[in-house]
Amino acid sequence: MKTDTLTALGTNDDKPSGSMLVELLDHIEGWEYKQNSQEIILSDAFHKLLKTNQVGKTLPAAAVTTLIHREDRRHVIRTFLAALKEKAVFRADFRLVVQSQVIYLRVVGETIINKQRSVRMIGVVQDVSNLLSVKQQLKEEQQQSKYIFDQLNSVIWMKSLQDRKINYISKGCNKLFGYQRDQFLENYSLWEKSVHPEDKQVVAAKQKLLSEGQPLSHQYRIITSDGQIKWVHDQTIPNKNADGTISYLFGMVTDISEEKAMEERLSYMVNHHPLTNLPNRNVLDKRLNKLIKEDNDPFALLYLDLDKFKVINDSLGHKFGDKVLQVVAGKLQTAAPDNGLAVCMEGNEFVLLLDKYTSKKDVFRFAEHIIQLIESTMDIEGYELHIKASIGISFYPDNGSDKEQLLHNAHRALFHVKKSNDYSYHSYSSSNGFSSFTSHFLEEEMRAAIAREEFELHYQPKVGTTGKLLGGEALIRWNHPKFGRVSPGEFIPFAEENHLINEIGDWVIQTVCRQLGEWRDKGFALYPISINISPMRFMKKGLVELIEKNLDTFQIPAELIVLEITESTLLKNEKVVIKTLEKLGKLGIKIAIDDFGTGYASLTYLKEFQADILKIDQSFIRNLGNNRQKDNAIVSSICHMGKALGMTVVAEGVEEQEQLELLAEFFCDEIQGYLFSKPLPAAGFEKVLGDGRLQSGK
């Protein structure tokens, strides 16, 4: 009830009586206090609120004051008496305890003056229990929210756009920014100053979205009060008014430095070789794509391989091999120019990218520098290791218009280096003669050669020391319609490089089986024929099944087929090779180790793979003679060792009578070489089959 209404209840002696006043106030929670009698007249609504059983509507004032909560009683009485004395309005919020239940009241009363004496006070009461309960609940929720906000690693804040001040900011600002809350509340510019200088422009541009009413979520760096750099995730939401204007901004800033650090670590792992820490193929691909897309100036790729690296791993262990790779990686990283990139591929292969070179001669000089740099002696844990490198080079755009072609051609050039002993680096574009032709045309020609029947087999006889025929070796020849006779030394390495050797090898197997069938049908006595199998063919599935199928098709006994493999075949993948050899052995196929003595760990592999035939490399046979005691001793030892292991020993490349005589003394089983016969076409070999014997010197 308003004060003027209360006053209107009486301002002179004609004011309504107590009973009349009660009637006026019965419909509300009203009261009247009489000072002289110290009684309180309560309205029916007030009696109902107090749950009194009192007859009538008048109560002693003391009866009512005893209902006031003891913690509020003294303050309420003092305030009430002061209002009477000063003839002022009485206002108080306090608690009543009614039947053990606490009721929150808001009381307003006005003193009624009669002849300048305070005689009574009239007022109303409002039960505010629900309102205060809601306020208390809101207060508790606010306190809980504030507690939660203060415990978070994030910073919760609210900003007024009108005065550009922060109205609220959680306690986390101290931990994240290094500033106290009061500092932010007093100076909003601290926030803007905290943004990293390199991110200020981007952040400012993002902030403009808020003025358009769009929520904002972005990441940037800040510099804390003590100079630390942190990554934060900032989410800001504008608060729109009914008219669409924005009055407040609400936001949350979270420290994501650890997440960013994890992202950087993961990115580093994805883009770097774990052992050498050099960039890996992913980085190279992206860089090459970028250079090609931008149609940049010419650039060069240097594909590098460490020679005989497996020897280090096998002899000293992978620990030393890993350290060699790390040392080489460090040298390459140091040597790479500012516009270059050193990349670790797989195993012991590296790639150097040279961007914007001046001339190809500069690239060649750089390749020479890298080779010399790597070939310097390495001292690793007291071991002096001498490492050599080979490099293949390709140029953009001369040798390819995409990254795959450029890498393939650089690797192709490397392959030629590995096959040659004349140089340590080779440029794909600098090949000449037949090699130049192969770079552009040979692959398609080789694929068509089988269909056009351009390949043929020659057979070189194998005889005993007395000239008796014991078998032969199938050797492939290529009669190109334009280029004439192509040397196997030229096209076999190319075929291996491009994986065409598998198709060619399968053709040889089928052709030998067919030829044996034809000779059988002609009535010739059959002898074992050796077939050279590329190491790559052992890595491809289906070799055993292919041989078995051809043996069955042409009805050829398995003991007539000998597969010649090099020691490098055994080094490719031991598990795969062992499994394949076991299957071939069960078929009855004999295995010969070709070029024995030129590979690694020969004795170990003889024991492990249980081959049937041992072919002494012709480099040892070439040096046999009365004045070559060491070479004689080596060949003699190999012959005796082979015999002791139950193997057939074959000497290839025999061209002199003196060599034959010494091999007979060493009890060598079979002789192969020009002393008896060069490789013969099928028709020429038929004559040998018919004779069954060859004379030396023919």
Descriptive report:
It contains 28 helices and 28 strands. It is of the alpha+beta class. Strands 19, 20, 21, 22, 23, 24, 25, 26, 27 and 28 form a ten-stranded mixed sheet that branches. A six-stranded antiparallel sheet has the order 3-2-1-6-5-4, with helices on both faces. The longest helix is centred in the first third of the chain and has 23 residues, at 129-151. Helix 13 (309-316) packs antiparallel against helix 14, helix 17 crosses helix 18 and helix 19 packs parallel to helix 21. The termini are far apart.
Largest sheet: 10 strands, mixed
Counting DSSP E segments of at least 2 residues, the number of strands comes to 28
Rg (C-alpha, Å): 51 Å
Per DSSP, the total helix count is: 28
Q: Please give the alpha-carbon distance between the first and last residues.
A: 140 Å
Q: What share of residues are in beta strands?
A: 25-35%
The residue ranges in which pLDDT falls below 50 over 5 or more consecutive positions are 1-22, 429-440
SS-based structural class?
alpha+beta
**So what's the oligomer here?**
single chain
Given the C-alpha coordinates, what overall shape results? elongated
What is the helical fraction, as a range of percent?
A: 40-55%
Give average pLDDT, whole number.
82
